[in-house]
Structure formats: structure tokens, C-alpha cells
UniProtKB/TrEMBL annotation:
InterPro entries: Peptidase_S8/S53_dom (IPR000209), Peptidase_S8/S53_dom_sf (IPR036852), Peptidase_S8_His-AS (IPR022398), Peptidase_S8_Ser-AS (IPR023828), Peptidase_S8_subtilisin-rel (IPR015500)
Any single GO BP term: protein processing
First and last residue of the signal peptide: 1-26
Family: Belongs to the peptidase S8 family.
Domain called Peptidase S8/S53: residue spans: 238-533
GO CC annotation terms, alphabetical: membrane
Protein name, entry field: Subtilase family protein
Residues annotated as the enzyme's active site: 246, 303, 494
Domain of life: Bacteria
Keywords from the UniProt entry: Hydrolase, Protease, Serine protease, Signal
Length: 898
């Protein structure tokens, strides 16, 4: 088709190209490229020695430019750009097929000279969508550019290549950008990426499964606190002080001494109370038993050194182990003795508050859970917490809730910690109860049958008094290391508590203004829901209803990511989220190397549906009272009415688990026909968001915000409303309301709807990775700003059966072989029968690109008390490589439920 815009282009093009060739010939590559260097990325067989030999053959000097994969061939004499390009292309042609060189080109800078990027002779160009293939071909021919490939998703986006010795890829792509018919053009940058994880060089770090569980010692991969990922935001600050109250300490331990606290207000050895706190020369801490400034271990004291190492061992120093806050300051406070007075402990907690300590760990407590804490000591502890100290207490080593009745863990100002194993199970002999805030990785348990396989590796007091001595720990499953400064045999809630306290140190290092309440909330709100079959976490509050698993197992990465700076890939204190299933409370950072909301933390791991959002509900006429944050969970979710003229209402609940309020929040809700894998979003969806797509043939219909002409709801602010306050008086979740106009009933369609919600805040936008994708089933599990509800309510108040049609889809651009798998809630297995039409479960179905096929299931209810979900997942692959593309769920319930 011809149009005037294209006509003007072709009339002007010959003159434009001639002018460019006249002016560009003498123009050099922009200053952002490195002189006299060819960049080389090695292939699988590209060893340093092989690359060095190739460089020598061509008369170049071989050097590393960027860690992990980019090398430079430096010309020994000056070379112009064209010569470098010819050699780079020859290197790729000769050695790519052999696997020695993967890519070669010039070296450029991304923003500054600290960020090197490789520039092969390739660039992207996005042409106006009004241009056809012939138009684009003429432009490319005029510039001597060859098509490498055309995008299958983005209209008229091409990857192009040019020959060496021309104007240079940066100049050519810039000239493309100058064309009115080109939306953008830029080189095919090769940029350095790194796994979102910091791995210390400490020799025993490989044994520290509680930081990073790779399956060592027969453990379960990822049954850990993810501290190695959290460390990518920093190893902690020496300005953050963690006090450890315990038995005496190995003050000169090689892996602890570097972090030893130094009181800035005290002059060592002058015998004067310089800072006026009543203690003389308290330079590094205090011994509250001997009442002196030397909290060093005496006699057989070893516990304090091991506890301190779990939180504060100096990380990445090539020695031993790493604590969870490896660069925080360590204040040792000795309180050893079987008996100690309330007065002494009051003095200690007052001291901690007076010295502006940030965090305090207490891996000790009453032997008898029924013991109580005196009023004076309670007041002192709560006062320290009120002053800003986050106070951690070990919950107790016994399967008892007694410590939550009257002992230290029960106090309002205390964060109490219990234990999990390297198999992501609760330690049998570890505290339970409503006062426990979190489970943290510790040890396997004390008695068979064990729930884990190993203990914790940490610092040890050297010599005979240590755990690693001539009198080894009974029942330790792992042989002790030869270096007696360390032990493989520590554990209990004594280990779980300092691990968590160290993570609090990471949080305070990132945001020093956090209050103890905010620290507690971050730790609780980001916990992984391990062993749900035993913990039975509430769908409404996120907490274990059995009071055994608290809020789940510590996840340091998720907690620190919320408060880390945006510039460091953190969220800057804001994290709005909409849930994908009842176990999802926001931990969906799959883009950053972590798990997504489809992972069920059972052992072995299970897959969860990501399409049953509890944050989307529908109300058909006659309407119920509009839900609030307090009533949303009890609000009855209904099937939309298909009657002509009926306006259904749809509600989306939005939470924020960050300490800073989300601002300028947009909530968009759309529907499409009931099916497993959802249809793709239109190609301009993200460009138009929050407004509707401007392209025809959109399978998604946007709903209008109630009382507004907009196709999205605008919310000024979403304050903190994370799991810690869910369902409580302080729950500030925001509910948005939409009008849902369902189409007329069509017997040839599914006649029920999948609802997709997208939330976006000015200070917590949808992830950039999501905005490069168009398949909702790929976005939802990895981005907690996006969710969908894809299920049907089936009221089984009487015995009957009903047929439910739905679409099985291929939303992608290539032919696939897929199948449908059935999963029933266990209680339903004898209460319903599921019959298929148009397919068989687990039988391969071939679908062309974009194809959708109407199939169905007949649910036959044989027990009127039936209650649960029929899950149907659309999957692809075989064995362990099976991946879930999408799915739907049919809820079966008795009318008495309502």
C-alpha cells in the first residue's frame, strides 16, 4: 500500500544518502569507544591460553578487561577503527565455529569508563509500523546493512549487521535514528551481567548451608536464608552495632576481631569514665558478671564465640566463615553464670539503650518455659526496644509454647526466633507459639527422627574449651574441621537467633531509620512459607494457624531488597503487591535469580497455581456492601452475571509491605475468556499503559474504574499494609472497584472470565523485565505488581454435575506440544469425578502459534460436602524439565461456606 509519507521518504532518500556519505566519511567513531583495542568474549573452548596465543599471532597484547568474560586484544601500535573492525570480524569468522571465540568487536563505554560494553558490527532498528518489507529493504540497502533477524514479537524491529571498514556501527545506528521512519536504533550492546549473589571467599563458606544451600550435606537446594543474595546490597556497615549478650568470648578470634566494636567516647586504659555512662574503659563491651571491661571467655565458655560468628564473623576475608552481617560492629556483653540477678540484666539492657546499640542478640533464656520475667526487667527490655534497639531472643530448644506464656520471647519488645533445618522443615525440638516471629535455618534437631541432615558451621573458641576439641559434640553428623578455630557442630535456636539478628543488621545498614517494629515487619512479611502441610499458613494473615511455623522461614534477600536503594536494584522502601495464591505474600523476585510465586516450599518442592489470586473478587447484582480492608477476605466472591444490562463489580486489593507509602498508584483490571495459558497482551500494551491498547484485535477488555471514565483506578497512596498487619486493626490495604460488563452468553465460548490486574506506583513501577514481556503467565509469577484470577466457582449445595468449557492456548509465536495435568485437593479425590471432553489428561496436544482450542471438563459431585479446588495446569516438557505455562482452577464448595 502506498502513502504520501513513504513517498516523501523515497523522493528524498537518494539525496540524503549522498549527503551522509560525504560528511560521514571523515567522521570518526564517537569518543565512547576505546582506542586500539578489540574486545573478545570467549566461547566454551576459549581458555585464557588459547586466546593469548591468538592475540600473539595477530600481534596483539592479551589482557582481561572485565571480570568474568570480556578480554582485550591491545594493538602494540596504533590502529584505525576500520582495521580493528576487519580483524575483529576475521577472528569471529575463524574461531566462532570452533567454540574458541563467541563474539568480537570494538570496546565502548556504557555511561562511564567503569562500564565496558562490547560493540560488534550489529545494531537494532525499529521501523515505523506503516513501512512494509520492501520499504525497509530499500533503507537497509542504502546503508549497506544486512538483516540478521526480525523480531517475532515487536513489529518491524530488526537486528542488522554492517560490513567492517564503513562508518562504524555507532554512526550508522545514529543515522538510522535520525530517519523519521525509524522509531529508534542503537548498537547491539554486549553488557556485563552478574548473578544477583555475593559469594565470600572464606574457606568454610561452602559448608554454611544456612546462607546458601546448594544441596551440600544431603540438604535441599534453597532451604536457606538467601543471605548470599542479600549481600549483593552490601555486607553491612560498621556504623551498625550488634550487641551479643552471652557467655564470654574469644576476643582475639581471627574471624571476629576485625569487627570488634570500639566505643568512640572512651579512651582505652586511662582509668576514666570518659563518656560518663558509669563504666570505666568500656572500650569494646562489658563483662556484667565480673563488672569489668573484659568480656573474654573463661573456663569452658564457648557458646558466645559460636553465637557471635553466626551473626558477625568477618566475611570475604579468606578466613573461616561469614556471619550474616559480616561487616557490622560486634559488641560483646558477658552475662555467663547459671544464676544472674535481675539487677545485672537491667543494667545490661539499660546500657544497650544508652549506647545507641542498633540490634541485640540473646541466645539464652529460662530453662523452664514456665518461668516469668520480673516487672523491672520487663520494663528495661521494653524500654530498650522503645529507644530503637531491635532485641532478638532465641525461642527455646523444645517443642513447647511455654516460652510464649511468660518468658523472654513473650515480651512485646522482643523478636523471638525458632529453628528450621536444611530440608526446610521445622526443627522438632524448637519453640512454638504465638510469640515466635520467624523460623531461621539452624540444625537437624537433637533426636531421631531428624528433620534435617546437618548442623551449622561457625566460629569456635580455639583450644580445648571449644566445640571442636578433644571432647567433640555428641551426635554431630559432620566431622569437625582440622582448624579448631571453627566448628561444624553448632545449632539450636541459639544459632537461629543471631542469624536473624545479623539480617536485621543488613537492614539497618541499608536504612538506619528503621524502627524495631519495621525491622520485625520486614523479616516477617518476607518469610518463605515452608512446610505448609504442617504449618497451615492462614490465607488471610500469612501466619501459621498451628502456631508452629510462625510467618515462615527467614528470607534475607527479600527483606533487604525492599529497603535497598533503587540504584542498586532495590525497591527504595516501597513494595506494592497483589497476591497470586494464598501462600504468596509478595516473594516473587524470579527475575533476580530467586524463586517465584509458583514455588511451594514443601520437601520435595511442589508447584503452586499462580492464577488463583485472593486479591481479585467479583460481585454480581444484587450487590453486597463494598468490601473494606477489614472485610475483604470475608467478601463472597461470585460468578459474574451474563444477563443483558447487568453491571458486575470487580474489586482489587493492593498491599504495600515497604515502610514507605507507595504514591500515585495506578491499578488496571482486564478480562479475557476462560482458559489455561492466557492470550498475549497487545504489542503496545506497555507503551500505552495505563491507557488501553490502540491496536485492533485485542483479546483483553479493560474495565472502567467505578465512578470514573478511566480504564484504570488512580490511588494517591498505599501505606504499609504487609502480612504483619493483615486482617488486624492496622491493615491499610487499598481496595479499588471496577465496573465489569460481561458479554452476552454464547454457547460456543467458555462464558467465564480470567481477570488480570496490573499495579504501578511512581515509586514502585512494574519491573523493567516485565515490560519486555507480553505473556501474563510469564509475568505474574515473577512480578508482585501483576496478578490474575483464573478460576470458576461451583456451588455444590446439592448433588449434581456440570460441564465447564475453557480454552487451551498457545500464546506464543512458535508451534508447541503441550498437555493438561489434573491436580485435586486431597479431600476432593473421593468427592468428585472429573471427565474430559476434547482432550485427555497428560496427552500431548499440538498447537500452532496463537492457536486456541475450546475443550471442557465435566465435574461430577458425589458428596454434597465436597469442598476444595480442581486444578488443571497446562504444561510443557518432560520429567524434571516440565514447566507450567498456565492453568485454571474450579472451586467446589458447599453453599454452607457462604
Amino acid at each position: 500500500m502506498f502513502n504520501f509519507r513513504k513517498a516523501s521518504l523515497w523522493l528524498a532518500l537518494p539525496f540524503a544518502v549522498a549527503a551522509w556519505s560525504a560528511t560521514v566519511a571523515a567522521k570518526s567513531e564517537p569518543e565512547s569507544t576505546m582506542d586500539n583495542v578489540i574486545g573478545v568474549i570467549p566461547g566454551a573452548k576459549g581458555s585464557d591460553e588459547a586466546l593469548r596465543q591468538i592475540a600473539q599471532e595477530y600481534g596483539f597484547e592479551f589482557r582481561a578487561l572485565v571480570k568474568d568474560g570480556l578480554y582485550g586484544f591491545h594493538a602494540k601500535q596504533g590502529m584505525d577503527r576500520a582495521s580493528l573492525e576487519y580483524i575483529a570480524e576475521e577472528l569471529k569468522r575463524k574461531f566462532a565455529e570452533r567454540g574458541v571465540i563467541r563474539e568480537s568487536g570494538l570496546i565502548g563505554y556504557d555511561v562511564d569508563k567503569e562500564n565496558l560494553t562490547l560493540l560488534p558490527l550489529e545494531f537494532f532498528a525499529k521501523f515505523d509500523e506503516t513501512l512494509d518489507d520492501n520499504d525497509i529493504k530499500q533503507i537497509n540497502q542504502a546503508f549497506g546493512a544486512q538483516v540478521i533477524r526480525k523480531s517475532t514479537r515487536v513489529p518491524n524491529l530488526y537486528l542488522l549487521a554492517i560490513e567492517p571498514g564503513q562508518q562504524g556501527v555507532a554512526v550508522i545506528s545514529a543515522k538510522y535514528s535520525d530517519l523519521a521512519e525509524v522509531e529508534f536504533a542503537h548498537p547491539n550492546y554486549w553488557k556485563h551481567h552478574t548473578t544477583f549473589e555475593t559469594l565470600p571467599v572464606d574457606p568454610f563458606f561452602v559448608d554454611q548451608w544456612h546462607h546458601r544451600n546448594t544441596g551440600q550435606h544431603a540438604g535441599l537446594v534453597d532451604a536457606d536464608a538467601d543471605t548470599s543474595f542479600a549481600w549483593d546490597f552490601g555486607l553491612g556497615s560498621s556504623n551498625v552495632v550488634i550487641a551479643v549478650a552471652d557467655e564470654g568470648f574469644d576476643m582475639t578470634h581471627e574471624d571476629l576481631a576485625a569487627n570488634l566494636y570500639i566505643n568512640p567516647g572512651e579512651t582505652a586504659g586511662n582509668g576514666i569514665d570518659d563518656d560518663g555512662n558509669g563504666l570505666i574503659d568500656d572500650v569494646n563491651g562489658w563483662d556484667f558478671v565480673s563488672n569489668d571491661n573484659n568480656p573474654a571467655a573463661i573456663a569452658a565458655e564457648r557458646h558466645g564465640t559460636a553465637v557471635s560468628g553466626v551473626a558477625l564473623a568477618r566475611g570475604n576475608n579468606g578466613l573461616g566463615v561469614s556471619g550474616s552481617c559480616p561487616n557490622c560492629s560486634w559488641m560483646p556483653l558477658r552475662i555467663a553464670n547459671p544464676f544472674i540477678s535481675d539487677a545485672t540484666m537491667v543494667q545490661m539492657f539499660d546500657y544497650v539503650a544508652d549506647m545507641d546499640v542498633d540490634i541485640m542478640n540473646n541466645s539464652w533464656g529460662h530453662t523452664n518455659p514456665a518461668s516469668s520475667v520480673s516487672a523491672a526487667l520487663t520494663a528495661s527490655i521494653n524500654s530498650a526496644a522503645t529507644s530503637g534497639v531491635s532485641i532478638f531472643f532465641a525461642g527455646g530448644n523444645g517443642n513447647s509454647a511455654g516460652w510464649c506464656v511468660a518468658s523472654f520471647p513473650s515480651l512485646a519488645g522482643v523478636i523471638a526466633v525458632s529453628s528450621s533445618t536444611n530440608l526446610d522443615r521445622k526443627v522438632t525440638e524448637a519453640a512454638v507459639g504465638n510469640c515466635i516471629a520467624i523460623l531461621s535455618p539452624s540444625h537437624r534437631g537433637y533426636n531421631a527422627p531428624f528433620n534435617g541432615t546437618t548442623h551449622v558451621t561457625t566460629t569456635d573458641r580455639s583450644g580445648a574449651p571449644g566445640y571442636n576439641s578433644t571432647n567433640p559434640v555428641a551426635g554431630c553428623p559432620q566431622p569437625e574441621p582440622g582448624n579448631t578455630n571453627y566448628t561444624h557442630c553448632f545449632g539450636g535456636t541459639s544459632s537461629a537467633s543471631p542469624l536473624t539478628a545479623g539480617v536485621a543488621g543488613l537492614l539497618k545498614s541499608l536504612s538506619n531509620s528503621l524502627s524495631p517494629t519495621q525491622v520485625r515487619r520486614l523479616i516477617q512479611d518476607t518469610a518463605d512459607k515452608i512446610q505448609h502441610s504442617a504449618g497451615n499458613y492462614s490465607a488471610n494473615t500469612a501466619r501459621s494457624t498451628t502456631n508452629t511455623h510462625a510467618y515462615g522461614r527467614l528470607n534475607a534477600f527479600e527483606a533487604t531488597r525492599i529497603v535497598a536503594p533503587v540504584a542498586d536494584d532495590g525497591l527504595g522502601g516501597v513494595d506494592i503487591f497483589v497476591r497470586d495464591n494464598t501462600l504468596d505474600w509478595g516473594n516473587t523476585s524470579g527475575y533476580l535469580g530467586q524463586q517465584n510465586s509458583k514455588v511451594g516450599y514443601e520437601n520435595p518442592r511442589i508447584s503452586l497455581p499462580h492464577w488463583v489470586s485472593p486479591d481479585i473478587k467479583v460481585d454480581a447484582p444484587p450487590y453486597q456492601p463494598a468490601p473494606t480492608a477489614a472485610t475483604f477476605d470475608a467478601f463472597v466472591d461470585e460468578k459474574p452475571s451474563l444477563a443483558p444490562g447487568d453491571v458486575n463489580r470487580a474489586y482489587v486489593r493492593v498491599r504495600n509491605r515497604g515502610p514507605i507509602a507507595a504514591t500515585d498508584v495506578q491499578v488496571k483490571l482486564m478480562w479475557t475468556q476462560f482458559g489455561t495459558a492466557l492470550p498475549a497482551l497487545n504489542a503496545d500494551f506497555w507503551a500505552q499503559f495505563p491507557n488501553n491498547s490502540a491496536l485492533p484485535g485485542n483479546p483483553w477488555t479493560a474495565m472502567n474504574c467505578a465512578g470514573s471514565p478511566n480504564s484504570y483506578c488512580q490511588v494517591a497512596s498505599v501505606p504499609y499494609s504487609g502480612a504483619s498487619v493483615a486482617g488486624a486493626a492496622g491493615d491499610a490495604a487499598v481496595i479499588t472497584q471496577f465496573d465489569f460488563l460481561a458479554p452476552a452468553y454464547d454457547p460456543g465460548l467458555a462464558n467465564h472470565f480470567c481477570l488480570l490486574a496490573v499495579t504501578n506506583a511512581s515509586n514502585d513501577p512494574v519491573a523493567a523485565q516485565s515490560q519486555a514481556l507480553f505473556l501474563a503467565d510469564s509475568i505474574t509469577p515473577n512480578d508482585n505488581n501483576v496478578t490474575h484470577r483464573n478460576y470458576h466457582n461451583l456451588d455444590t449445595s446439592v448433588l449434581f454435575s456440570e460441564y465447564y468449557p475453557f480454552f487451551i492456548r498457545n500464546p506464543g509465536d512458535r508451534l508447541i506440544k503441550t498437555f493438561l495435568a489434573l491436580e485435586l485437593d486431597p479431600v476432593l479425590e473421593k468427592q468428585v469425578r472429573v471427565h474430559t471432553e476434547g482432550f485427555k489428561f497428560n496427552e500431548q496436544i499440538e498447537l500452532k502459534a496463537g492457536e486456541e482450542r475450546l475443550v471442557g471438563v465435566k465435574i461430577e459431585v458425589v458428596d454434597k460436602n465436597a469442598n476444595g479446588f480442581v486444578h488443571i495446569a497446562q504444561q510443557q516438557g518432560e520429567g524434571r524439565k516440565v514447566k507450567t505455562l498456565g492453568g485454571l482452577s474450579i472451586e467446589v464448595y458447599n453453599s454452607n461456606k457462604k
